[in-house]
Structures
1.
Amino acid sequence: KKRKQKFQVHHLQELFETKLGAKHVDYEQSTASIVKKCCEEFSSDNDEPFYIVNLSHYARQYLQWMHFLGRIHPFYAIKSNPKNFIIEIIAELGGGFDCASSEELNLVRETCGNNFDYATRIIFAHPCKSISHIRQFRQVGVQMTVADNEDELKKLKEHWPDAKVLLRLKPDDRHSLSPFSMKFGANERECITLLRLARKLNINLVGCSFHVGSQCLDPKVYTETLKQARRIFDIAQQDEFGFNFKILDIGGGFSGYDWDKPSFPEVAKIINNTLDKLFPKLEDITIISEPGRYFSSGGMTLVTRIIARRIHNRVYKSNEKIVKLERNISGSTSNSFENNDDSDNNSKSDKALIENADNIYYINDGIYGTFNAIIFDHKTFIVHYLKMKKDKKKKYPQFRSVIFGPTCDSTDCIAHSIDLPLLDIGDVLWFPGVGSYTNASASNFNGFQTKKYIFIWKK
Ligand code: PLP
């Protein structure tokens, strides 16, 4: 099995070298040096922003998944980053897909063609579907979907009577950064009503699904929801209902970063232990999952340029400020931020922070683009800088800075207060790990959008 996987990965590497010009990069090479090289090679006379995509990341995540959660088939949640290259890699390695709309389904069709097994490798994982989308999924041969309310069951009876339907449960997702339970999911009492209706309508209920909320910080939620699923599996079997549930879908919510806590192996261990107790292998239940950010987060780095600046040139006389600057000189060259998240200045208004900043920079991607994830995904970005003009200084004093995006809108502010050295027009700000819920939900407002992708394959 391992030899086969190695062969598949090697094949993908060669395929993407030919197809997308993905350059092979040594595994040891730092992202900083790759960014520098790309800036020199691809954009020395071009200040457009671009993404560096490390295609081997998606294969690595797939292999890691199979290593730690081998019982569970991953169905990549396309919404987190709907790009053909991710779909192609995951499909080649054997994964399936969670599609929530006709457009997402079309992406799989474009990438995987007609021979793909739509019946077993796609789930239409939206509990509230439009009829035109149902028609298309059905036409293509998709069989699995989810429902969490009576009207959806009636809709399926009329428009997709042969669907295999999973009941979507409602977990306690308080500890997730993006909870979904106020919008989707049925509690246990509602599930029983749905079981009764499904029996009456002769709907083919085949199992349960759930989503613990995106960026789930407490893995115990998986345990608790799996217990809930077990109870529904048991109730569904009772004579009154007579179903024989065979599919369990444990949704998404897994982190995409190695440094996040709890780590993926830790979460996997908790899930495996619970599954072994509640859904032992003997029972022959197919277990699937819908990871989105787990696959997509770490694969992309955004590279932007400073296109304009406003330098306030303050003279630093106060001792306090000098101490502060010195502390920062010996600090890291990177900063992370969630827009205006600065503990010293939390009480100040954004306007005051901007007015009191030392320097203001304008870069060529912003809140309407990649950084929409600050608003929609509670995302924390990590910023690094790269000075393009050679300078003998090794360390640079840091200044309170503001970073604006490129549009004409003043809400297009990426960071209200962040420590950065004095940077010039043409210098680079780059942001690693921007692959999920970023380009997927970016707009073209004001004519600005990061469209260029540079591909590498880190070995
Ligand atoms: N499945 C469903 C139904 C979702 O709504 C989402 C996210 O919105 C996902 C899977 C992917 O979640 P995550 O990116 O947290 O893995």
2.
Amino acid sequence: MELRIGVIGTGGIGRDHIRRLTDVITGAKVTAVTDINKEIADKAAKQYHALSFPTGEDLIESPEVDAVLIASWDPTHAGYVLSCIQAGKYVLCEKPLATTARDCLKIMDAEMSYGKRLVQVGFMRRYDKDYRAMKEVIQSGRIGEPLLVHACHRNRTHITSHSNDMTVTNSGIHEIDILRWLLEEEYASAQVLTGKQNKNAAEGLQDPQILLLKTKNGVQIGIEVNMTSGYGYDIQCEIVGETGTVRLPDPSALLIRSEGKHTHQIFTEWSQRFVDAYDNELQQWVNDVKKATLSGPSAWDGYAACITADALIRSRNSGTSVPVTLQRRPEFYD
Ligand code: NAD
Ligand code: ISE
């Protein structure tokens, strides 16, 4: 039986996930869509022979929908996730789970009251083969204990509504999650450094921002989040251990020698960079939902990322390092 999925938000990634669920993933079909922009929802519904619903709540409650994928704007996520839990439906929520840790706690409380995991967060880098290989190297002990991390997250340009907080909650949140997953430990403190602003960024946008994190075991992490690199979409990550280092490779690209130059192409948009990871993420989620046991990033992971993001934002406002204080992890999420 195919899993019938309803997609909330038919913008950039929503449409790409609908295509993926239809053409790439096995065992699923998109039966329903919705968007506050009715025109684009209706267009996607027509293209994929799905129903178009007037609101996210109507879609969540529909008997035509077994599970929900949320791909609407960040501030709408928490409300829709809570409605999915209330309806007893599995939900894959694009990152971030919410825009504050307080809303993540509400989600965890609702899920624990329901009594079973229903929520997965779209931290898809965990499904990328190179990040997975990096984790194997760290766990093998080949580079000794990790000491330092150098990471960068460069976007070529940003949307006009991008804000200082979104640099953390919308973009840097990927590094917050993937480094916590790679190192298998929580953060102890957080700080944001800002400096000279890129004149190509929107007026008032602090860009780039340097996110400094220190883990409970003392691993020091520096992440450049740059929304206006001007040249491309570039994700880098290097872990420095006691006896060696491991580094995320650049995506494979042809090396071209011509016209007196040796060149290779760099991606320009995020949508080009983690295609296999999105495919793996969605296939695994569909398989897991059909077996009624989720294995992907949980509401706890969404919370841990958001509380770190909250601390980073407080640090940027206060100019000092601030502690990251997580609640005790409920056994439910072990
Ligand atoms: P987008 O603006 O292209 O699309 C979002 C869509 O949601 C828009 O069509 C908008 O009309 C719709 N929408 C907004 N509020 C809504 C509501 N209350 N109900 C229904 N629809 C609503 O943005 P996008 O780039 O596709 O991002 C969508 C989400 O996916 C964001 O949360 C973003 O953080 C996340 N995202 C994740 C990744 C990733 O790498 N995992 C990449 C891009 C975006
Ligand atoms: C976008 O929402 C994403 O999630 C992309 O993966 C990220 O790189 C980009 O900065 C975000 O705006």
3.
Amino acid sequence: MKLQEDAGIDVVGDGEQARVHFVHGFLANLDGIDFEKKTLMGIRADRYKAEVPTVVGPIRRRGPVHAAEAKAARAHTDRKLKFTLPGPMTIVDTIADEHYGRREDLALAFAAALNAEARDLEAIGVDVIQFDEPAFNVYMREVADWGMAALEKARSGLACTTAVHICYGYGIKANLDWKATLGSEWRQYEEVFPLLARSSLDQVSLECRNSRVPPELMRLLDGKDVLVGAIDVASDTVETPQDVAATIREAMRYVAPEKIYPCTNCGMAPMRREVAYAKLSALARGAALVRAEVGPSR
Ligand code: ZN
């Protein structure tokens, strides 16, 4: 977190250092899951296969999952603190089910556990809770059918800022191969953004840098804060501040500047530390370039 501060990042996180996986880390303190019972399952509509834990009974949170990490993070920074949780649909897509039978029912069970966790995190002083929902880019019909309802249940009653992150995944081979099949324009966001615009979530985090997402799709997020991904996490090439500024300026054609929060496309977990630092520094400096143009309000 000190490195994030030194790089000039205003909203910092703990880097999920205490988790083995962005989904399975949250499951550690839940009843109803057998971690020994591994099931080989196709993930994200069979984009890749993974051995995942299995739901064998009712999902119940035994107690706080991430409280110790959140308290440690809160104690070590005066900046705004963001904490990430997996979204309910993405959890459902990353675990085998032998109990609930319907993905919708399982999602709502996880949403209740996520909501209890999120309320604890808010009480600890977390400023922004972000639900990571890469599955929203894959199962667009189910997002409308039950994914949004589950996400709303996960964030219900929270007074802190809430965000949802929907991305095309970082640089593992299965994701790169999948992206190669998506054609010249990635329009997946087009189906989900209108639903998010009508939701109670405050912020939407998306990827822009080196993606083929048509930037005008950001118009569909009218009223929301837009976390503009200006750093490619699937490449070790470090963006210049000018690159970052160009991505932000492009976003400003569709989103009011006070609604824009420049960020990275996705997490930096697989990246070397010095590359990650250089990219974060470029992000802050690029944002500063545009802020100087836009004026003193931001
Ligand atoms: Zn992501």
